[in-house]
Amino acid sequence: MIEATLCFPRRDVDGTEEVLLIEKRRGLGEGWYNGPGGKLEAGETPRECAVRETREEVGLEIDPADLEKAAELDFRLDGERHTLCHVFRTRTFAGEPRPSPEARPEWVAVEAVPYDRMWEDDRLWLPAVLAGETVAGEFRFVGGEPLDEADFADHALERGVSFADER
Ligand SMILES: Nc1[nH]c(=O)nc2c1ncn2[C@H]1C[C@H](O)[C@@H](COP(=O)(O)OP(=O)(O)OP(=O)(O)O)O1
């Protein structure tokens, strides 16, 4: 099973709530919008991975302590656990987003998140994450690798979960 992260930086511009998304330029979900993120490296905690991936992909610096854990997503493919994704959000970061070979960053109004250009599961959990809730979800795909070409089948979502035991 792969362990991965997603990070959603937030800001308020003259009363409009925005979230930093990326258009992914390569890898899983290429061509779709998502948060910065990626796979854990050996010895890394999810929090450390989210900080590193956000730095590598869009150039923002985040103190790991400023990340708030928002979700745990269990992506299953053909009945097997495929990817466990840890989702974080933060309003505290340094720097200006810049593009990289992996990602083209874009500040988007929370009211205008392009769900039709994202993973099909995102519309089920991202609104809650952007509303400040905590969620745990299981999302089942069928049809074989790669995950981003499989068919989304069904899901279960729990709200108001506690991540107190986060490593
Ligand atoms: N169903 C899904 N919905 C979603 O929103 N994000 C998903 C997802 N399944 C995987 N992801 C995200 C989690 C993680 O941020 C990313 C993993 O993609 P990659 O394998 O391309 O990782 P990396 O960006 O680390 O790539 P490498 O640099 O090649 O390791 O995709």
TrEMBL record:
<dbReference type="GO" id="GO:0042262">
    <property type="term" value="P:DNA protection"/>
</dbReference>
<keyword id="KW-0479">Metal-binding</keyword>
<comment type="similarity">
    <text>Belongs to the Nudix hydrolase family.</text>
</comment>
<dbReference type="Pfam" id="PF00293">
    <property type="entry name" value="NUDIX"/>
</dbReference>
<dbReference type="InterPro" id="IPR020476">
    <property type="entry name" value="Nudix_hydrolase"/>
</dbReference>
<dbReference type="GO" id="GO:0008413">
    <property type="term" value="F:8-oxo-7,8-dihydroguanosine triphosphate pyrophosphatase activity"/>
</dbReference>
<dbReference type="GO" id="GO:0046872">
    <property type="term" value="F:metal ion binding"/>
</dbReference>
<dbReference type="GO" id="GO:0005737">
    <property type="term" value="C:cytoplasm"/>
</dbReference>
<dbReference type="InterPro" id="IPR020084">
    <property type="entry name" value="NUDIX_hydrolase_CS"/>
</dbReference>
<dbReference type="InterPro" id="IPR000086">
    <property type="entry name" value="NUDIX_hydrolase_dom"/>
</dbReference>
<keyword id="KW-0963">Cytoplasm</keyword>
<dbReference type="InterPro" id="IPR003563">
    <property type="entry name" value="8ODP"/>
</dbReference>
<dbReference type="GO" id="GO:0008828">
    <property type="term" value="F:dATP diphosphatase activity"/>
</dbReference>
<keyword id="KW-0694">RNA-binding</keyword>
<protein>
    <recommendedName>
        <fullName>Oxidized purine nucleoside triphosphate hydrolase</fullName>
        <ecNumber>3.6.1.56</ecNumber>
    </recommendedName>
</protein>
<keyword id="KW-0460">Magnesium</keyword>
<feature type="domain" description="Nudix hydrolase">
    <location>
        <begin position="1"/>
        <end position="135"/>
    </location>
</feature>
<comment type="subunit">
    <text>Monomer.</text>
</comment>
<dbReference type="GO" id="GO:0003723">
    <property type="term" value="F:RNA binding"/>
</dbReference>
<keyword id="KW-0378">Hydrolase</keyword>
<comment type="function">
    <text>Oxidized purine nucleoside triphosphate hydrolase which is a prominent sanitizer of the oxidized nucleotide pool. Catalyzes the hydrolysis of 2-oxo-dATP (2-hydroxy-dATP) into 2-oxo-dAMP. Also has a significant hydrolase activity toward 2-oxo-ATP, 8-oxo-dGTP and 8-oxo-dATP. Through the hydrolysis of oxidized purine nucleoside triphosphates, prevents their incorporation into DNA and the subsequent transversions A:T to C:G and G:C to T:A. Also catalyzes the hydrolysis of methylated purine nucleoside triphosphate preventing their integration into DNA.</text>
</comment>
<dbReference type="InterPro" id="IPR015797">
    <property type="entry name" value="NUDIX_hydrolase-like_dom_sf"/>
</dbReference>
